[in-house]
Here is the input.
Amino acid sequence: MAILSGKNISKRFGGLVALNQIDFQIHVNEIVGLIGPNGAGKTTLFNIISGMYSPNSGQIYLDGDDITGLKPHQICRRGLARTFQIVRPFLHMTVLENVRVGFLFGRERMKSTIQAEKEALRIIEFVGLQGKMHLPAQNLTLADRKRLEVARALATKPRVLLLDEVLAGLTSTEISQAMVLIEAIRKELDITLFMVEHVMKAIIGLSHRIIVLRYGEKIAEGRAEEVAKDPKVIEAYLGKESPM
Amino acid sequence: MWIALTESWIILSGYTGYISLGHAAFFGVGAYSMALLWKKLPFFTIVPLGGLSSMLLALAIGIPCLRIRGPYFVILTLGLSEFTKYLFINWEVNVSGTVGRILLGAPGLHTFYYSMLVIAGLGVAAAWWIRDSRFGVGLRSIKEDEEAAESLGIHTSLFKWLAFGVSAFFPGLVGSVMALRWTYIDPYTVFNPIVSFQIIVIAFLGGITEVKGPILGAILLTLVSEVLWAKYPYYYMIMLGTLLIILVYFIPNGILDGLKRLFRLPSEGI
Here is the structure.
């Protein structure tokens, strides 16, 4: 069953067609990777799904409901959370305070800040930041900031989580740790994941399916091994073999 | 008086980062509420009405204002505050054919003193209570990163709008009390943009994100300006200005923060 799907999504910025009639379906408890060269429209698609942009045409459905044109905060409350490509934790708040925001305003909409704090502790432990709970976010390393951003998104209790390049800029040990975390999010928290990623090791290791975008068009979709062999994908990344 | 004004400013500008230069408008509307209703209603009824009418004005002008950010917001609030002033001037001259209002039969000094104390207390309480409430957490998230806040389920436009309204309530109360204290008001004095500027000076002096900031800032600025004024009546504005430049340059986060850093106290978590 599709928990998140898009039909005929198009987005133009002036004369530039960022997305052209994209269809996609994400099934319950799946991890789907979204890849493509720079400028392919991956982040644009995420911005449309999460409500930050409205598409020029097409509809987004979350669990069967049309969520096209809703505000980001409304979409968040219906159970779709996201992280940002360039991490955006609240730098002057501590890790605990950051995560608490998700509980106060996400799907749970907790009234009590104290109760939200208690719940926040559990998520912080889940992502492995328990030792750094009272540090302001600005003192964290990039890898920890990314964990924090994931924790904050998880605190809104999403059913679907969009991850926008959470692995970019991490060392290979950090990537392996983050991969374990992502798999745990799916398995233990029952969350469906849709992730943009450039780190191929991770995308192939984690994704059940991969969607490939190029210049705003969907050029391939399928299991990792199939997609990697697709001549159109190879061409998109490496260019055509020149007839020498 | 300044404590109440600045605390109310902190609720909007300190917490959300939307710097308002328009709080004089709310002060003025409060003052005029008193002028129009004085002798028709009892003192303690008019003061809250003054607050409410400021709040209504804020909610009305908040709809367009809060759609823009940064320096544009600052300039628009200043502009709207001046606009309100000229509306009142126009009304005085063309409709009622007057320049200002004289308020007779003012209550004694004690009434003023205690009502201002109560208002300041309410202002401090409101700023303190909001800071760590769910509402305050939302406002502070907006200051940190508005888009990220929105993506976490915070109805950012609603929150900013409410903060603007709450923030306008207190200057309305203060304005209505002060109108009676001054016994004569006209639009130039009650909508004086200097009021807005002084609020900001106090806020930056004390520290803009903490509840104690305005208390400290207001006491300090009032004391310093009184002393300087008494001793050096001709140069005191220059000295005060220089002092402020130095303060802002060396301790941009306010005196509290400056002291903390001086004594290497660990900054307290919340």
Observations:
- The mean pLDDT of chain B is 83.
- Chain B has one domain: 2-262.
